[in-house]
Amino acid sequence: MKLVSWNVNGIRAVVKKDVFVPFVKKEKPDVICLQETKAERGQAVMDLPEYEEYWNSAVKKGYSGTAIFVKKDLAVHSIELGLPEDLCKKYKLHDDSYGDPNTEGRIVAVELDDMFVVTSYTPNSKEDLSRLNLRHKQWDPAFLEYMKQLEKKKPVLFCGDLNVAHTPSDLAHPTQNEGEHGFTAEEREGIDNLINAGFVDSFRHFTPEGNGHYTWWSHWQNARARNVGWRIDYWFVSKKILPKLKKAYILPDVMGSDHCPVVVEVK
Questions:
Q1: In what order do the strands lie in the sheet with 233-238?
Q2: Is 68 in contact with 158 (CB distance < 8 Å)?
Q3: What is the rounded distance in angstroms from the CA atom of residue 86 to the CA atom of residue 103?
Q4: What does the DSSP 8-state code read for residue 137?
Q5: Average pLDDT over residues 18-27
Q6: Has 161 been annotated as catalytic?
Q7: Burial of 175 (0-12, 13-18, 19+ CB in 10 A)
Q8: What does the pLDDT look like over 154-183, one tens digit per residue?
Q9: Per-residue pLDDT tens for 79-96?
Q10: Largest Cα–Cα distance of the chain, in whole Å?
């Protein structure tokens, strides 16, 4: 089984560029997880009849949003959109002054026969770090608790744009970006907590060392061509999945967005 995650930074844009459908037809993933769709279902016309689509669009038009496409020959037993209400209340997510992140279409979870697959678009801390406290104290712990709840039922594979580079190896200029949004101690702690809770960064499982492996590049100063980037898109898996995990890799040559797809293959 091949599973792809991609922050498309606007599904209508990548479809209009004639990038998305050809990519899917070439790669033939069983599951496609999307972030930052910036659209509602039906706003992007795609000829992908072999997939069933599950969308979670933001209340605010043209903003955020996630989706999961699943091949129709796979049984989907349940779908959940957003974080469970009890966790929103526990972590006071509805009280964020910037806006309720659970109305921003940030999570889709689908239950398959042997696993849950979850796509997530983690709130950006913002350049002035105005949303860092939400990220650190509310969203990250709520999301982790949700993943552990799902894991009690079945192993979990979760992916997405988590808006953080975990280690200095995950961005081209760690020293210059220390303490900046996307590379603060608080954001990185969120990834530490996922790992300490038993989830495995699939890419680093196969590629434990080395930099130069990035999934997002700024539009400034020809950053992508020079590979001055950040690895902020991930596939994490439950430890029970590891014996079935065959590959985890990045597709940096796939254009159409400022992010590129990331892939896992499981038996």
A1: 78-81, 107-111, 116-121, 156-161, 233-238, 199-201
A2: no
A3: 15
A4: I
A5: 98
A6: yes
A7: exposed
A8: 999 999 999 999 999 999 999 999 999 999
A9: 999 999 999 999 999 988
A10: 48
- The DSSP call for residue 124 is P
| CATH number belonging to the domain at 2-266, selected among 3.40.50.300, 3.60.10.10, 3.20.20.150, 3.10.110.10 | 3.60.10.10
Q: Is the pLDDT of residue 199 over 90?
A: yes
Please give the Cα distance from 33 to 81 (Å, whole number).
Answer: 13
Query: What would the two tokens of residue 10 be?
Result: 């606007």
Q: What is the rounded distance in angstroms from the CA atom of residue 213 to the CA atom of residue 252?
A: 8
Q: Indicate if the pLDDT at residue 226 is higher than 90.
A: yes
Q: Taking a C-beta distance cutoff of 8 angstroms, is the pair 256, 266 a contact?
A: no
CA distance 154 to 169: 31
**Catalytic one among 161, 170, 201, 233?**
161
> For 140-196, what is the HEC assignment?
HHHHHHHHHHHHCCCCEEEEEECCCCCCHHHECCHHHHCCCCCCCHHHHHHHHHHHH
Q: Which candidate, 183, 186, 161, places its Cα nearest to that of 9?
A: 161
Alpha-carbon distance of 76 to 78, in angstroms, equals 6
- Calculate the average pLDDT of the chain: 97
Catalytic residue among 91, 121, 146, 214: 121
> How many degrees, rounded to 5, is the angle at CA 31 between CA 28 and CA 37?
105
Q: Does 146 qualify as catalytic in the annotation?
A: no
Is the pTM here over 0.90, yes or no? yes
**Residue type, position 231, single letter:** R
CA distance from start to end of the chain: 6
Q: What three-state secondary structure class fits 77? A: coil
The ranges assigned to domains in the chain are 2-266
30 neighbors 3 (Cβ within 8 angstroms): yes
